[in-house]
């Protein structure tokens, strides 16, 4: 297939581009390099040393003889350029990662809220609009999030996208209907992914677009089979308070002797998936497109669930790290259970990498190896969900909060 990877310079986008190119697909990255600009804005850098996208693709060609093409295009702002590129290249499939993906960054200030909404919603809508305008029947695979469901405490399993409900009619009869699982976003970022879902429903219904939405959990790990092939193909690894996700943060904290930063009681249960499984799932989704005129296909892209404090305690046991129980910068339930259906990917042959199999090598191979690149002052999470919470956590983010170490 000819595949366009929108956002192919990012944490999941880059290993996906390598994986699909390795599988023989004609791979084209479209990216505005915004993640690199945001690193500069925040004064942080990936734990792993990353080369430019042009250099990365040059190394890939030298190693494998395969070409990954790079195009500097901003989906949210350059609608005409995007449309022109799609019309000229007419890809068979499109993988859409081109959105601002950090919840804390999206809550940082009013400017960051506006940026995240404008960027994410425009990017998705521009893409859908262009596909219709140029009559391109490409299968669109979108990286969504488990966070669209929210983290309810009612204990019912989360289905793969659609929920059967019984509705009482005016005649007093009960009719059954399948609805999109009710959205319950926990951040501005997650809210944009809920809005994406509505855009997909409309364009699938109105224009017959073929769309798959992957509701992905928290990704952990760094390497995939292809990123290991050369040191300059290495994936990015974020550890800072805005872009670092929880498990990868704990790994690097353990490697540099920084107390593990658990928010609140750590009672939040979340869904997880290894980066290698994430790229496999995207390939499985690409090779199983929905029919034209059918409904949006939705997969839950996660392989296991864990409570945050259990993860911290597991890593503390493995490494001797301390745990810091910090005031939570987020507005979220202190405790929640999470049961998720993920049978669809398992039925397509996914054989998941389990946390207990991969964790130790991730600490040794990546976290310890590059620990010298860490700026400890960038570890605390300082983006608060509300002004009230900000007043509690922001005046002494490191010193004061780290007194509560166990
Ligand atoms: O140092 C930390 C960092 C986070 N947390 C807690 O860990 C949980 C998860 O936080 P996270 O930063 O790992 O994940 P999140 O903000 O939900 O976002 C990440 O995971 C989402 C999948 S999901 O969480 O919605 O399933 C993706 O969509 C996002 O792109 C990705 O950045 C939260 O309860 C948070 O309070 C801590 O206790 N300590």
UniProtKB/TrEMBL annotation:
PANTHER family: DTDP-D-GLUCOSE 4,6-DEHYDRATASE-RELATED. SUPFAM superfamilies: NAD(P)-binding Rossmann-fold domains. InterPro entries: Epimerase_deHydtase (IPR001509), NAD(P)-bd_dom_sf (IPR036291). Coiled coil: none annotated. The gene is sqdB. It is an enzyme of class 3 (hydrolase). GO terms for molecular function: UDPsulfoquinovose synthase activity. The lineage of its organism: Bacteria, Pseudomonadati, Pseudomonadota, Alphaproteobacteria, Hyphomicrobiales. Its EC number is 3.13.1.1. This is UDP-sulfoquinovose synthase.
